[in-house]
Amino acid sequence: MPPRPGPPRAGSVPAGRGGSDSLVASGPEEARERQCPTPPPPQCLGPARGAGLRAGAGGRLLLTLRFWQRNVKRNGSRGCLNRSRFGSRERDWLKEDVGRGCVYVYGRDSAAAASSELRLVLCTVDTPASEIRDGEERKDLFVQLHGDLVRRLEPTEKPLRIVYDYLAGLGFDDPVRMQEEAANPDLSCMIRFYSEKPCQIEQLDRILLSGIYNVRKGKTQLHKWAERLVILCGTCLIVSSVKDSHTGKMHILPLVGGKVEEMKRRQYTLAFTSAGAQAQTYHVSFESLTECQRWHRQASTVVSMRLSMVDLSCYSLEEVPEHLFYSQDITYLNLRHNFMRSSGAGSLDSLCRFSQLKSLNLSHNRLGEFPVSLCEISTLTELNMSCNGLYHLPSQIGKLLNLQSFWLDGNFFTSLPEELGSLQQLSCLGLSFNNFLFRLNNLKRAAADTLEGNKSVIYMDLRDNQLTDLDLSSLGSLEQLHCERNKLTELTLSGFSLRALYASNNCLTGVSVYPVPGQLTCLELAHNQLQCVPDWVCEAKKLEILDMSYNLLEELPSRILSSLSLRKLTVGHNNLQSLPPLLEHIPMEVLDLQHNLLTKLPETLFVKALNLRYLNASANSLESLPSACTGEESLSMLQLLYLTNNNLTDQCIPVLVGHQNLRILHLANNNLQAFPASKLSKLEHLEELNLSGNKLKTIPTTVANCKLLHTLIAHSNDISTFPEILHLPHIQIVDLSCNELNEILIPEALPAALQELDLTGNTNLVLEHKTLDIFSHITTLKIDAKPSLTTDSALTSTFWSHGVAEMAGQRNKLCVSSLALGSFAEGVEAVYGMFDGDKNEEVPRLLQCTMADVLLEEVQQSDTVFMSNTFLVSHRKLGMAGQKLGSSAVLCYIHHDMADPASTFSLTVANVGTCQAVLCRSGKPLLLSKVFSLEQCTEEAKRIKEQKAIITEDNKVNGVTCCTRMLGCTYLHPWILPKPHVSSIPLTVQDELLLLGNKALWEHLSYTEAVSAVRHLHDPLAAAKKLCTLAQSYGCQDNVGAMVVYLNISEDNCTCEMHGLSLPGPGGFSSTNAKTTTPSSSSGIASEFGSELSASEVSSEVGSTASDEHNAVGLDGNLLPRQERRCSLHPLLPSSIFQRQPSSATFSSNQSDNGLDSDDEQPVEGVMTNGSKVEVEVDIHCCKGKGLEFEPPALEYSSSAPGVEDDSGLVLVIQRQNSINSSAVHGEVKEKCELQKSPSTCCLYGKKLSNGSIVPLEESLNLIEVATEAPKKKTGYFAAPSQMEPEDQFVVPPDLEEEVKQQIKQHQENGADQEQKEESAVALTEEFDTAL
């Protein structure tokens, strides 16, 4: 028996033909040394794929590395490949060891091909690129990440290992799952292998254009047309003879500053002319219009440049094109983001050939070492070597005597050579993100004595460190200081030259500046612990901007408010109770006073601050407003006024008339009951009006005078008449949700600018078809959906309800999307999510449409990491859209515990980015998510810093996003990751609501304020609207989204039998004359039911699913045997496989058309093939109240659930009480009826019953909804005999025992007569028991 072969190692001999290429590998000894899994034997690979093992020379065994060539069709989403399936034998081979896998190898131009040629390579994690390269009969193998740069793989690099490491970096930790993901072709949008280096035509044109064309020199026609080789590269046009293109005479025409023109007399001909007094011209004739346009487009770019600059960044270059060296006038060369080599033809050693080169950018080239040859380019004045993994600078750097700017950011320098000090002209040295910089390190202290040698420093950046105290009093030349996001408690500075100080987000209790900074213009001290304004601030005579918001200020000095230089004052989120009076005119333009304790504003505010254009006094306790004029005429220039969330009444409206220049007015959440028509008509310049959250009953008709109005927000009022706003020419957004609208008067033509109309939450509004047709032209129309049998929102309304609000703000598009599924996955579960794309709307829309499906798949596959895998798979499914675009996301899943389905509800939350979820528990906010941003997550900031990402001054990764984890933006890998933060918490009766919001919402609302703002509201839609309105009034101008989920997870919703309710048997009490204990539906306690027949009798009359035998007499009143009944809060633990629990009080059936149960493989005897026999499962709500009054049941026929006739002619009909939410059931003879659809099958992922039966969706959960279809065969569903249940007895409150005993006695007296009547009416040959 031959020895067991080792792993595949490809050689150079091709083997196998006819549809599959295989490579013959030699050297089994080397394979054994690696100790990797063996490839599949020949019989496993199949005869069509050739022999797996072959006998080589000398009897050695040759292994085969398998390649499959497949034509894989592309899907319609941006060129991503559909899943291609290989044989089950190959799949079995992969499953034998997680070290095995497959990689997809593409051709050179597979991205442009309509049907790409794809090769599937089975290999191991130790298979080097050289084997795959030889198998493809190619010189090299290339890898491309995120559709960006293409890098040549070294022969020893292992492609499958690269893929596995990439997946592990994303967040996958299961080797088996990584193997599955690596075999998915969708992964090619993130990582892809090529057998040839791909390059787009557009990139090639920018690098070099060449061809043989007819050329004529000069402007006159003295010269003849001749065939010449023409090359456009860099800044020059090169013309040479065909034979001597490289050695013969060349004519070089500089194009920078010249011109290129089309010749009218000759078709497809361009005239290239150089700049200068002795300009030369060459005419080039092309063969086609397309080719002429390509040359004209590229040449026009060159001639339009003012400087001789060549940009070859992001082209995956390894060397500079040889023809570029003919452009000796190049002064600026950009080679950023390539793979330039240090030696060889066209490498960095050749750059010294550019005699006039002044600026060179070589950042992001993975050099590893500083090229010494660059020190020979003595003309350089600017050199960028950032992000190259450099550790040392050579001593020859001192030769660059003309160097003025030297960028070394993002490397690993710990020291600099002394020769750097000899560069006398060096004025800018970038050393950030190394191992000795100030910013983004762990500096704990920076005192004056350690900075004695830097007294000439004028700018210092110490942001994002751990500084606790900072003394820079010795730096007399310091003009600007950034020390945000530290832990500073004391700050001491010199004020001689200080112009700007930024010290927000610290713990400052005092700031000392001496002498008084006479040149200070900007001071930002927000988010600190200052209790008063420093005295030296009041003496700064040139101070224009002062930000002291989010401090502990209790008073504001009069010298600050009366400053003659201050133009912008921000003191919001303090404890100010009053403001000093204004005695003189001030130049104040912006005043932010929100979130204080103000009850009034200075009486002369609008009279003395005539330049005031912006005032925000929201979230105070204002009851009145100061007058805007002292005489008859007002000089107010106020344009933006925010007064949301105060105590203003109708008396403040006349004061607003004095501000006739108002463009934006927010009066939301006040005590307004009316807006006088005469006052509104005078605000002619009004563009945005927000009156939501008041008690308005109408919008004045004079709103038609506001011709410039484009936004009207008046939700959550009592408006019954639609305002006359559809005549306004510029109206764009109208929000009248959560009002009392009952009709709409529509003009003949809607305004063309109208983009959004929100009418949700108006329960009395009924829109006609004609009205809907007119509104169909609106881009976004929001109306309440009509109740439908296909929805099951009523089933889950007992446990949760939600409302969603999304507002675009000042932006022209909405980049926030929400996911809200109140019923999910065939059970009482829910999924809620929010996605924020910042500046793109494509990725949030994709996540909104696909993430629920991915979650459902992952829940079925894994019970531990399903939430994390949901995010990772969704990240992959974004395809090419996720390469450059990304989105923050938060996903909340309400479900039962996977390990214990009998448990109560749990809430699992996962998020990336800045979208957050907050749970209100006992009235207090509980944060369930994590903010992944550079400012708020120190661990992520440290990780990104170690990976050498560039963090710009606005705290964004590579200047793109402040998030450190997102879905999408794959081109920022490994800095930006999709792995989410996951938390899970059991829901309790103390949980009131769940809030979801994007970054803009939580930036302007604290968790506590958001919870307290919506706790008292009963409508989740109105609550979500209110949160967005508050954010906008507090200064949010970006997209804002909010979702409010009201929770009602309590034992009051329990319908379990174990909590006290048992159904009586035939011997129990049940009579139409008996009084029924029925609590109020609003109490949250479920009602009982009364009927002419008991529940057990209903089961007997309808048909048994438990036994073919007659029911035996049971214990305690002849109770019928049945399984213990559980509700959705406490589902019954399944005995075998996992199944989703049905919704409360719903009908469920697991039968198919052939009579198969969901778990049966063979038809069950006694079941009709048309599926007419069904299983009924009903949850009866338990009664736990005391002191409940009896009321006579007022019966009213509801939508019955008729069934097909059986032999007895009896059909079950459902009756519902009109006022007490109880159900009554009685027998009735019907000839023909149809089973209606079950609400339990109406969820998003539910399936329609195969027999077409349905049950109507009832309005209340406190109903017994029984749908059945009597069988036509005289056989039961199970053969097991009935078993009695001693605990099946009715539990009665103590204060009702006497009355219940009387009912039981009366029922027993009439029981015999009633039983005789029933036997005479119909003689049943068999009884059927349907478990309730």
TrEMBL record:
<feature type="compositionally biased region" description="Low complexity">
    <location>
        <begin position="1080"/>
        <end position="1106"/>
    </location>
</feature>
<feature type="compositionally biased region" description="Polar residues">
    <location>
        <begin position="1140"/>
        <end position="1155"/>
    </location>
</feature>
<dbReference type="InterPro" id="IPR050216">
    <property type="entry name" value="LRR_domain-containing"/>
</dbReference>
<feature type="region of interest" description="Disordered">
    <location>
        <begin position="1"/>
        <end position="50"/>
    </location>
</feature>
<dbReference type="Pfam" id="PF13855">
    <property type="entry name" value="LRR_8"/>
</dbReference>
<dbReference type="InterPro" id="IPR036457">
    <property type="entry name" value="PPM-type-like_dom_sf"/>
</dbReference>
<keyword id="KW-0433">Leucine-rich repeat</keyword>
<protein>
    <recommendedName>
        <fullName>PPM-type phosphatase domain-containing protein</fullName>
    </recommendedName>
</protein>
<feature type="region of interest" description="Disordered">
    <location>
        <begin position="1298"/>
        <end position="1332"/>
    </location>
</feature>
<dbReference type="InterPro" id="IPR001932">
    <property type="entry name" value="PPM-type_phosphatase-like_dom"/>
</dbReference>
<feature type="region of interest" description="Disordered">
    <location>
        <begin position="1140"/>
        <end position="1163"/>
    </location>
</feature>
<dbReference type="InterPro" id="IPR055071">
    <property type="entry name" value="RA_PHLPP-like"/>
</dbReference>
<dbReference type="Pfam" id="PF00481">
    <property type="entry name" value="PP2C"/>
</dbReference>
<feature type="region of interest" description="Disordered">
    <location>
        <begin position="1070"/>
        <end position="1118"/>
    </location>
</feature>
<keyword id="KW-0479">Metal-binding</keyword>
<feature type="domain" description="PPM-type phosphatase">
    <location>
        <begin position="801"/>
        <end position="1047"/>
    </location>
</feature>
<dbReference type="InterPro" id="IPR032675">
    <property type="entry name" value="LRR_dom_sf"/>
</dbReference>
<keyword id="KW-0677">Repeat</keyword>
<dbReference type="InterPro" id="IPR001611">
    <property type="entry name" value="Leu-rich_rpt"/>
</dbReference>
<dbReference type="Pfam" id="PF00560">
    <property type="entry name" value="LRR_1"/>
</dbReference>
<dbReference type="GO" id="GO:0046872">
    <property type="term" value="F:metal ion binding"/>
</dbReference>
<feature type="compositionally biased region" description="Basic and acidic residues">
    <location>
        <begin position="1299"/>
        <end position="1320"/>
    </location>
</feature>
<dbReference type="Pfam" id="PF23010">
    <property type="entry name" value="RA_3"/>
</dbReference>
<dbReference type="InterPro" id="IPR003591">
    <property type="entry name" value="Leu-rich_rpt_typical-subtyp"/>
</dbReference>
<dbReference type="GO" id="GO:0005737">
    <property type="term" value="C:cytoplasm"/>
</dbReference>
